[in-house]
Amino acid sequence: MTTRIKICGLKSREAIMAAADAGATHVGFVHYPPSPRHVSLEEAAALRQMVPAHMKAVLLLVSMEAADAAKAIARVQPHVVQFHGAESAQGCAMFRQLAPLEVWKAVGVKNPASLEEAQRFVGAVDLILYDAPAGSLPGGQGLALDWSLLAGHQHRAPWGLAGGLNADNVAEAIRQTGAPLVDTSSGVESAPGVKDLNRIAEFCRAVREG
Ligand SMILES: O=C(O)c1ccccc1N[C@@H]1O[C@H](COP(=O)(O)O)[C@@H](O)[C@H]1O
Questions:
Q1: Whose CA is nearest to atom 2 of ligand 1?
Q2: How many domains does the chain have?
């Protein structure tokens, strides 16, 4: 099966088009003020309109109040909302009622217990996104999780892999984990928040060519 590719933290039409040309399936917009990739809801809504019809737009939110998250989703109209903070399974599940909106939940993976804890999102979300554990930011840190924890794991929900992926390591990450979707942000940048169009192309090529 073809590995799906999400390029996150985009802020410009050029970066969206570079991701599209390279064969990415998803592009993400981060609405989280502490992030170097933060865009306002107005900017996210404008960027969302630039996403080609064959791709999906992902709005990344972190630990927002449900009412504010609902307003953000209504404003931006993404295909997918990616919750990347302390959202509960119940809180995530509420947003699935906004179908066809897809709901993803990022989970930091530190050890085998993290994978057990992630099971609470089975049935509550459309996809579980495994990322490195939170540090000074909840994500976008360029840190990889221990892929061996996912090797042979019996997944009970659709899932994806994030955390420190770049053109040099993504093929090995897929080989070890069998990830059906890979997600990168800082791994395709020249500086925090600055996307490098060549690195986006190289990342997608590395996914396709292994
Ligand atoms: O990108 C950010 O700044 C960010 C901020 C807050 C939460 C998540 C964030 N990014 C997401 O984190 C993972 C891993 O990113 P990276 O490839 O290690 O930089 C990915 O889903 C990003 O979209």
A1: 140
A2: 1
